[in-house]
């Protein structure tokens, strides 16, 4: 088990890994209440963030606008701060979307050196000094 799984946005190939994680967690926690549970493939998983340990999805947070809709963490990765890291990333999603609309892009994501959340380094290409100056009316 990696003590610091990578967290990134959902990618097209993640759905099967998310299905395995969510199904296993539901069976473990709610199996007695939901014996015929079926994973909802048509949920808005494209809006999720995933945590990966050696290429395997071990956590996922599904966001919807300004709130966290679902948060799932694999058994071997609980009680280590991963759920909190996923929540912080999801909560900062609106801020990141704002910066991306302004032309910024993510350079790297890394754990904070003291606190248990991820930091994100952003970069933006500034206008070239050779670009013609805008005229003001």
Secondary structure: elements and pairs:
Layout: E1 6-9, H1 15-30, E2 48-53, E3 56-64, E4 67-73, H2 82-91, H3 93-101, E5 105-111, E6 118-123
Antiparallel strand pairs: 1-2, 2-3, 3-4, 5-6
What does this structure look like?
- The chain is an alpha+beta fold and 137 residues long.
- Helices cover 26% and strands 28% of the residues.
- It has three helices and six strands.
- The protein has helices spanning 15-30, 82-91, 93-101, and strands at 6-9, 48-53, 56-64, 67-73, 105-111, 118-123.
- A hairpin with a 2-residue loop joins strand 3 (56-64) and strand 4.
Structural class: alpha+beta
CATH topology: Aminopeptidase
Helix content: 25-40%
The CATH class is identified as Alpha Beta
Mean pLDDT score, rounded?
A: 80
Tell me the CATH superfamily.
Gcn5-related N-acetyltransferase (GNAT)
Number of contiguous helices: 3
In short:
The protein is an alpha+beta fold. 26% of the residues lie in helices and 28% in strands. The protein contains 3 helices and 6 strands; from the N terminus they run βαβββααββ.
Properties at a glance:
single chain, 137 residues, alpha+beta, Aminopeptidase, four-stranded antiparallel beta sheet, two-stranded antiparallel sheet, 3 helices, 6 strands, globular
């Amino acid at each position: 088990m990696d003590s610091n799984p990578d967290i990134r946005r959902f990618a097209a190939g993640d759905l099967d890994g998310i299905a395995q994680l969510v199904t296993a967690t539901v069976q473990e926690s709610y199996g007695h209440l939901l014996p015929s549970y079926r994973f909802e493939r048509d949920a808005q998983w494209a809006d999720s963030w995933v945590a990966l340990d050696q290429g395997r999805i071990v956590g996922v947070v599904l966001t919807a606008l300004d709130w966290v809709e679902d948060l799932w963490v694999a058994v071997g990765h609980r009680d280590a701060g991963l759920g909190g890291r996923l929540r912080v990333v999801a909560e900062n999603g609106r801020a990141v979307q704002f910066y991306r609309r302004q032309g910024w892009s993510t350079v790297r994501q890394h754990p904070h050196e003291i606190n248990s959340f991820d930091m994100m380094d952003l970069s933006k290409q500034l206008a070239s000094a050779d670009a013609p100056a805008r005229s003001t009316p």
